[in-house]
Amino acid sequence: MERKEGVLKMxxxxxxxxxxDYFPLQSIFDWNCEGGENMPLGFMELLGVQDLNPPxxxxxxxxxxxxxxxxxxxxxxxxxxGFNYQPATPNSSSISSASSEAVNDxxxxxxxxxxEDQQKTKKQxxxxxxxxxxxxxxxxxxxxxxxxxxxxxxxxxxxxGQKAVKNSSFPRSYYRCTTTSCNVKKRxxxxxxxxxxxITTYEGQHTHPSPIMPRSSLGVGAGSAPYHYQQHPQPxxxxxxxxxxxxxxxxxxxxxxxxxxxxxxxxxxxxxxxxLLQDVIPSHMLKEE
DNA sequence: CGCCTTTGACCGGCGC
DNA sequence: GCGCCGGTCAAAGGCG
Length: 289
What we know:
Elements: H1 7-16, H2 19-22, H3 25-34, H4 39-47, H5 54-57, E1 67-70, H6 79-83, H7 98-104, H8 112-123, E2 139-145, E3 157-164, E4 171-177, E5 185-190, E6 197-203, H9 244-247, H10 254-261, H11 277-280, H12 283-288
The structure holds a DNA duplex.
C-alpha cells in the first residue's frame, strides 16, 4: 500500500509497537548525539519554546536532557523495513533528522484553519474523507529513565486516553496540552524491553509562548511545574534523572536543568560528561561514543 | 465547581 | 471484505 513517507512512516513504526522494538536504544542515542546539530532547534521549535529563552540554548545544551528521537529516524525505511530495522553498527544507523526535513524542506502546510477544521471534523465525528490523508504534526520522541510515566515538562497536559499496546505489557497514555488552541499531543509509554525507560512522543507545536499554569501562580500545584517557566522555560527539565522524582520534584531549578541538559549537546564537548547520563544510558552505550 | 483521570466505545487506516 | 490495531471521544467518577 502507499504509505506515508518520511515522518509519517516513522510515526507508524513508532505507533505500531513498542518504540524500542525497532529502534534499539543505542541507535537512538547515537542519533541523538550525531544528529544533534540539526535537531535541537527543530526540537525546541516543536515545543514552541525556541524564543523563550535563547540563552538557555546557547549553552551547548540544545536538546532535551535525555535521548531525543526524531520520529523520522530512518526516512528511508518503509514500515516493513522498520520492523526489520537493525542498524549495522551502533554508529552507522541511518537515523537522520527527517523530522526537521518535514519542517524545513517541506513545511507542514497546516494552517490554523485547517487544523481547526480537522479538529472540528473529529469532534463532530464526521470524518469526511478528503482526498488527502490526515495530516499530522511532526513528531519526535525521546526516552527517559523514570519511575513515573508522565514526566513533568513544564506544560499542562490532560490525559484523554490510554491504550494497551500490542507486544507490550505497558499501556500507552495519550495526553493533550490543556491550553486552548494548542493542539500539542503527547504519548507516553514504557519500553517493555526496559520498563525503566519511558518513551515520550510529542506531536505538534505549542502555540503559546509559555506554559499555562492557571492553577499555579506560585509555580507549584497539581500538574504544574515546580519552577518558574516564565523566567526559565524548561520543557524537559526533569526528564532525565530519576533522582529528581521523589525528593526534588518540587525544587528543580535552572541549574539543575542545565546540569541535565548537557546530555544532549549538539556538539561533542558536552558528551564527555556523562554524569546523570550514566543513570539513563547503560554503560556500554556510553562507551560507544 | 472546575479540572482531571479512567475507561469502554467508536472510528479510520492498514494488512491479509 | 474482514479483522486488527492505533488513536480519539465522551461519559462517569474522583479530587482539591
